[in-house]
Amino acid sequence: MLRGTSFASLCVLIGTFGLGACGDDGAADPGAGDMAAPDMALADAHMDAAAAPGCGDALPETVVVLPEPTPVPLAGAWWRGWVAGGTDDPAFGDFVSGTLSVDGPGTDARGIDWARAEVGETFGALSSPGTTLYFLRDLPVANGERLFARAGRGVTLASPGATQQGDVYDDGHHRVALPGATPEGTAESGTLPLAVRINPPRGRPAVQLDLWSTTAELVVDTISPHRPDLRVGERIDAWVGSRVTNLRGEALSPVLARVVESDLFEASETAHPSIGAGATAQLAFALEAKRAITAEDLAGETPTLPVTLEVTSPCLSAAYRTTVDLTVRARDEVFSVTRRSPVDGSVQYHAVRPPAEETPGTDYGLLLTLHGAAVRAPGQARAFGPSPDAYIVAPTNRHRFGFDWEAWGRIDALEALDHAMDTLPIDARRVYLSGHSMGGHGTWNIGVLFPERFALVGPSAGWRSFYSYPRDPVPGEPFLSASRGSDTERYAGNLTRRAVYILHGDADDNVPVTEARAMRELLAPAVPTLGYHEEPGAGHWWDRDPDRPGADCVDWAPMWTMMSERRVADVELDFDFRTPSPSVSATHAYVRVRSAATPLEDVVIESRADGAAVTLTTTNVRSLVLDGDALTRAGVATLAVDGEAVSVRSGAIPVGPQEGKRDDQYGPLAQAFEQPFCFVHGDADRVAAGYAAYWSGYWATLGNGYACTVPESLESTLDASVGRIWLRPSPREGLPFRWTEAGVDTPEGGPAAASVAFVWPRGEALDVYVITPADAGDALFVFPPFSYRPRLPDYMAWSDEGVFAAGFFDGEWERAETLSFGAL
User: What angle is formed at CA 600 by the lines to CA 597 and CA 601, rounded to 5 degrees?
Assistant: First the structure.
């Protein structure tokens, strides 16, 4: 075991925006003058963040149109605390537990230097990169009002009811609740103890923070909902996804997302398990059109049609309505399509560029194209001219920055592809993959991990891996094994039987052309159909012929020509396939890998056909399932797997033990968040409820996602298929770790008061347990549920000294030997 890995090292290791204890080092400006201000503290809360659950069954009869909120001025006297750059933050635990207070000016027992500061209309001029600043103030709240905020990157907020993350992308659309001003159900005016933590990124000293008050119990985002376009000639059945912020200090459970009946839409209702106390989550609203869109609906300069959304719950005093507009598109325009993601039930969208002419009864090719950072899916689709014989489909990565097309971004791309294959007339043999910049990296990553899906892989200005660009440090084991899927070059051999076209500008000052040259050198000996073009003098984005529709750096004619010559076989029998884990990519041709013998090595499959006989050779495989229908369709009569004869028959053919780990219930920890999940916290555990609200809002922003959060007393109301993310639950039997309120029983030599997070199967679902000592609320925030570069293994244990153990469970879900990890 390796002990003493610091929180700062863990921040580098995980590389996650939202890890509250992480901060940049740098010089600090203590600033401050001694200006009059009242004493303030967060220690006294009027309400519990995890109020007693259960609101009855009756829905409110009152319907309210959401009112316009009132800005709350920031200007005034605040307490300001200064934490020197390069030091651990001694106030973070008190901050997230709602007990941060100040006795007066000067340095307190924690080493925080407090002064009184006069704040203007913004916090921007008061922040210093590399330094953590705290601002505390009691904000007056009038009778019947609730507060919410828009916070930017580098800002975290704490009130008695929630700890809230700012918008890591500074989009300006993010809203977070500030519950805790007055007890629910009373008519009292009061004050809201508010703490603001500012830790701005380097080069961005200014921060965004705006406050509003409202008489409503929730906020519905109408600025950036995921919404479909209405296409002329079609009757739409689709979804609208909109972020909803719960301003109450108790969970809304259940929550109903309704579409109000209109001339165009039927009434509909979609139930969601909950929105936690003070949490933000994206809700899905079902659109069921009564009629097809007509040419008359295109009238107007910007043709739109309204849809009225309603949110209600037995926990609310009223049902709240708002309206969003849906854009009407002509048949030849790029249009947006929405779908509901199996990951979390959220609404995601992709854009489609239709072919030049759509002829009924004709099957078309499909190009899946991945956008670069900050580009939106419709913009990516519009960078292409219409193809004569292919649909162009541009997914979102769940956000225009998203996940670098790995983890949830990779899943989003494949979901968009599957939806397009199901709803458009596509020839499955003619599917291709391309992308630019970050999307070029996604093209490499998805292409090497899922080669059976694509006849051609065509990255433009793409970088290879996190380790070549932006040159992240290579993690040690077991984090390296949990993250092997990021190493594109390791799996480049999967492209041997595919066409590859590499496109790059030789003067690219964003992604250097050396990335393209390195991949050409790697692939040239093994890939017979390899196209390569460097555009002389071109930068990151270029268009050689601006008079021709489409930008040449993505809509490149020679790449289209190579696509037209390539097809994917119906059933591939001759192939070599390497995968980092069944939980990342399990299937190729007729083979589905269920589990590996060890998670520390790749799985390798070699298939060779000789007439009607097929020989399958495996390395590091514990169990498989073979597609007997595909083998029969391909005319296979005899099959040998690792030298043993296997009978070819219709249906699934299991090979090896089928109990224990399997590809959809496998680990690592992040896999539990790639399936429907819900945070579960103790009814009276305010810190755990605040943690749930924090990450629910983070997921709503980073992944445009839905994260259910409920107190333990409502856990039994969840569907059995929903994974539970247990936050500091009571001790229980049958699990690989034992714990008490003081912490986890650790391996011999482990520290006292330790914490652990681990993934564990339950029925058909995957659960996660996050166990920390009762008196160490900040320890919860060391576990980032949505990390993806690098990923966490099946379990990780830490103390206030840092991470001391991590590892994987074996194929039978037995405890594996604890694995130490190398230098970070």
Answer: 70
Q: What is the DSSP string of 462-507?
A: ----TTTSS-PPPPPTTHHHHTGGG-GGGGGGGGTTSEEEEEEETT
Chunked mean pLDDT (size 10), the chain, 824 residues? 33 35 31 31 31 71 96 91 80 87 92 89 62 89 88 87 82 82 52 86 72 94 92 96 93 96 97 94 97 92 93 97 97 98 97 97 98 96 98 96 95 98 98 98 98 98 94 91 95 97 98 98 97 98 94 98 96 97 97 96 98 98 98 97 97 97 96 97 90 92 94 94 96 91 76 91 97 89 88 92 90 73 34
Compute the Cα dihedral for 293, 294, 297, 301 and give only its sign: positive
Distance, in Å, from the CA atom of 184 to the CA atom of 381, rounded to the nearest integer, reads: 48
| CA distances for 442 relative to 207, 370, 737, angstroms | 31, 7, 37
Q: Edge-to-edge strand order for the sheet containing 802-807?
A: 708-711, 677-681, 723-727, 765-771, 755-762, 795-799, 802-807
Tokens of 577: 């396939």
748 Cβ neighbours under 8 A, 6+ residues apart: none
Tokens standing for residue 495: 């492209």
According to DSSP, the residues that pair with 340 across neighbouring strands are: 347
Q: Could you tell me if 39 and 137 are in contact, meaning their C-beta atoms sit under 8 angstroms apart?
A: no
pTM: 0.92
Q: Which two tokens stand for residue 450?
A: 């899922």
Q: How far apart are CA 133 and CA 150, in angstroms?
A: 18
Beta pairing, strands 613-619 & 638-641: parallel
Q: Are 125 and 159 in contact (CB under 8 A)?
A: no
Rounded to 5 degrees, what angle do the CA atoms 195, 201, 204 make?
100
